[in-house]
Design goal:
This protein has 408 residues and is an alpha/beta fold. The chain is 33% helix and 29% strand. Strands 1, 3, 5, 7, 9, 10 and 11 form a seven-stranded mixed β-sheet that branches. A six-stranded mixed β-sheet has the order 16-15-14-17-18-19, with helices on both faces.
Length: 408
């Protein structure tokens, strides 16, 4: 414990006491004054006692961090509890110390990130609650938790980390999708379910637990009553639909989106528009997760898969927390054919800033066959683009940035 504890550093008062003590000893020796030497030695003894007292408090101190989750959404409050335990020796000192939690710029403190707590042998463990508002998506470090211990004379202090830093992932928030957008998503998935489920019959069906979004007509009421929870029929040949969320990372797709001059000057690089596109991608992914068996996130040359319960989406949301807009990113039309040719079937939702007629034609060509497509943009596309997508069987939804004033 002593090896992990930094050596105490003198405070301003401590340096004064040390300087006066050395001065008294030196002056007493020169002037052969025993009183001055004794006084100087007494001051230095106080410093030594302060070192011992600080070590007795800081060395055995232990801390722990408890947080309900290591992933929060932008706009949510991250909460944690720091617990500190001092020495268990009955004759150990009781001390008041300063505990401080370090927070990066991704968080804004809701409560004070530092407090004075009391520790000692007959004192219960000190509890320190921290609340911080998640401001920006990404991976952020919380911690380390440090404590500051001072000796009873205020001559020395020890600053020591007691809880290491931990990573917290801040995932994108959701934006409200209109009833028209939600209907488009549901309609595309229903079409895929009908397509991939062909070939089964009532005789070769099997039961599985009900998932949100399953048609009520598929509920097997007799088996549901017998098992105590809703179950639906699923044909043995049918494969549940899958969804691809393809997020455009090219910076050029988010520049010059028709904002007014003042807003355009503040977002020349398209960063604010891209952040809104990430929110749209997260919103679409959450909406599709309840209706599909798997959601695949495609961004440039990276593919993040989520397999499991429809409400989780952990991998996809973490992937969206890490994405960054780039000038050298590849077009999605170069990535989607490779992804779909490998192991993905079902529908494709492309999220971008704006889409040209050439890009729309390439998207339709890259997802032909049994796939259904949705284009989610943050500015309304041109009528020519809508016509190309409509003829290709694609649906279009527009989720504009609030300040653009764009309308459907």
């Amino acid at each position: 414990m002593l090896r992990r504890t930094p050596f105490p550093r003198p405070t301003a008062r401590g340096w004064t006491v040390i300087a006066v003590g050395i001065g008294l000893i030196g002056g007493g020796l020169v002037a052969t004054t025993s009183v001055a030497v004794s006084a100087g030695l007494l001051l230095l003894v106080l410093v030594v006692l302060g070192v011992a007292m600080a070590f007795l408090v800081a060395a055995p101190l232990r801390g722990s961090r408890t947080a309900p989750r290591a992933m929060v959404q932008v706009g949510e409050v991250y909460r944690e509890r720091i617990t500190l335990r001092g020495t268990s020796v009955p004759i150990g000192p009781r001390s008041t110390l300063l505990v401080r939690e370090q927070l990066e710029d991704s968080f804004a403190s809701v409560s004070e990130a530092e407090a004075y707590v009391q520790v000692g042998p007959s004192v219960p463990p000190a509890v320190f609650d921290v609340e911080a508002l998640a401001m920006h998506r990404g991976r952020s470090l919380v911690g380390p938790v440090t404590i500051r211990v001072e000796d009873p004379f205020g001559l020395l202090r020890i600053d020591r980390p007691v809880v290491p830093a931990e990573e917290v992932v801040v995932v994108p928030a959701s934006t409200a999708l209109s009833a028209l957008d939600t209907g488009a998503l549901a309609g595309a998935v229903s079409a895929d379910e009908g397509r991939v489920g062909q070939g089964g019959s009532a005789d070769d069906s099997e039961l599985r637990p009900y998932r949100p979004g399953d048609p009520i007509r598929r509920v097997h009421w007799a088996q549901s009553a017998r098992r105590g929870e809703l179950h639906v029929r699923q044909t043995a040949q049918a494969q549940p639909p899958e969804a691809v969320i393809a997020l455009d990372l090219r910076r050029s797709s988010y520049q010059d989106l028709g904002r007014d001059d003042l807003a355009e000057l503040s977002d020349l690089g398209g960063d604010a528009a891209f952040e809104h596109a990430v929110v749209v991608a997260a919103s679409v992914a959450r909406a599709l997760a309840a209706r599909t068996s798997r959601v695949v996130l495609v961004t440039d040359d990276t593919v993040t898969r989520h397999t499991g319960d429809a409400g989780g989406l952990t991998d996809v949301l973490v992937g969206l927390a890490d994405v960054r807009v780039r000038s050298d990113a590849r077009a999605l039309t170069d990535v989607l054919p490779d992804v779909r040719g490998r192991d993905v079937h079902g529908m494709t939702a492309v999220v971008t800033g704006h889409c040209t007629a050439e890009q729309a034609s390439a998207l339709v060509a890259s997802t032909n066959g049994s796939s259904r497509g949705i284009l989610a943009t943050i500015v309304p596309p041109d009528p020519v683009v809508r016509g190309i997508l409509d003829r290709g069987g694609w649906r279009t939804i527009v989720v504009p940035v609030a300040r653009t004033g764009a309308t459907r």
